[in-house]
């Protein structure tokens, strides 16, 4: 993985997106419905693309929204639809398009009270709050976001009544129907003007912000944080939850200082990420240079990505805590400080997350539920009360309320960030230091991830590669103990493969949102052993996907 010479530095003016150009292309672009590159494609979490490449524009959103309306009818989902959006430039026009179609179809739409941007967790929280105790008339939702992707991108995802990302059966149905609508040149799409859609009796205002903020003390020990007097720094990253932090501080008496709380669709304030692109990734040491630079001014500093479903934690001693480290600390802390949680609660982790989580869970006497990448695999378990905590190595997590009931079934960066302050307030220790204590007891982990450019064809090959295609017996000098293409927890395909030895493993899978594939690897032996695993892993993958 070649690191750009611009990584971690302020963005140059020529790197900034042309917002007028993006929006113009959204309205004027005409995707070729027969070109796989320009079709509707729901990846790990919704349809993503850019208007500059005809992969995300008005015609896509018209088709997707009509398909969602048809899917709702098919599923007999007739409650309100909660809709949120982040601060990417393409989110506002996509919201306008969605309103025109949803209102024309008579959907009861719940939009933010003051035309405020709405984070992903606030939408999931709203769906579950509405559906609690109901036996019919269930609500669902739409979130318009490409997550932490670059400013040129747009994204659109559907959350069914479970409140979390839609399962593959739903996204496949919506994707296929949307592409049929595109091929038919939008025949059957219902649409009314935006002004009419905003004023129709089926459009309602909902106070996402205060409903979410006022409920936080049911999942986080806000009193402990307040009494501790901790100085908390927040880089709001100009994201959908940027205006949530000050109401949180006021409501619970916290000492919080917020930076970058004004939306800027170019995200010009962001340091450049590893590959020379602007990317709002709170787990990237390059993208988080601003917050890392302020670490000595605060007891703990936090950030969330653009739709606020991912977290980044910075402390004075540890700096930016790697996601796997913090996930391990969260598991260790939560299962010892939530006495009302039931004994049956399992720990959810993905196949590419650190095995330190397995070791921590074993010490706690908790079972691990290991699934493919994608938070959709956790929604049912969080909802039915079998999972108490779920996390992804990409800095996404959610967990149960104090009383063991479901909070959200989608990732929630805000509760993960606030939990870091609770951990410091209660334990009087830096979460980074707590991770060091885990390594002393359970072993030291060396973990890394690399990304490599891959065509659509190469990604498809990797996603369907059979385990028996590999005849290697050893990896980095150790005997291979397993090669799997399905997750142990639920048996679902991992969309790639995972190879394990006694002291290490690697997993390779194509990205669902970018033209790259990823190799994740971990060693409990040494950094040199990790590098050897990664080098051999990339050779094994490249040999089989070739030129696509």
TrEMBL record:
Q: Could you list this entry's UniProt keywords, alphabetically sorted.
A: Isomerase, Magnesium, Metal-binding, Phosphoprotein
- Species assigned in the record: Dyadobacter frigoris
Name of the molecule in the record: Alpha-D-glucose phosphate-specific phosphoglucomutase
| A single Gene Ontology CC term | cytosol
Q: Domain (Alpha-D-phosphohexomutase alpha/beta/alpha): give its ranges.
A: 40-181, 211-316, 323-439
The protein's matches in InterPro entries, at most eight in alphabetical order, are given as: A-D-PHexomutase_a/b/a-I, A-D-PHexomutase_a/b/a-I/II/III, A-D-PHexomutase_a/b/a-II, A-D-PHexomutase_a/b/a-III, A-D-PHexomutase_C, A-D-PHexomutase_C_sf, A-D-PHexomutase_CS, Alpha-D-phosphohexomutase_SF
Query: Which cofactors are named for this entry?
Result: Mg(2+)
MF term (GO), any: magnesium ion binding
Note the NCBIfam families from the entry.
pgm
One of the GO BP terms on file: carbohydrate metabolic process
